[in-house]
UniProtKB/TrEMBL annotation:
Species of the source: uncultured Acidothermus sp
One Gene Ontology molecular-function label: hydrolase activity, acting on glycosyl bonds
InterPro entries: WD40/YVTN_repeat-like_dom_sf (IPR015943), Xyloglucanase_GH74 (IPR052025)
Residue ranges of coiled coil: none
Name listed for the protein in its UniProt record: CAZy families CBM3|CBM2|GH74 protein
GO biological process, one term: polysaccharide catabolic process
Amino acid sequence: MTSAINVTFGKEAPGASYKAVYIAGVVDGVSGAYRSDDGGANWIRINDDAHQYGNWADAMAR
C-alpha cells in the first residue's frame, strides 16, 4: 500500500487473528477499495474500474 485516504476495520476472516482492514487508497499504483485479512501484509482489491460510483471512499468509513 502506497497511500490511504480512509481506513476502517471489520470482522476478522474465519481463522484469522487480525481484524479485516479496509482502505480507499493506492496499492501497486492502482487506486481502489482494498481489504487486508493479515494486518496489512497483503491487499485484495474489492472494487473494479467499472464500479466506482459516487463518493465511495468517503462513505466506507462513516
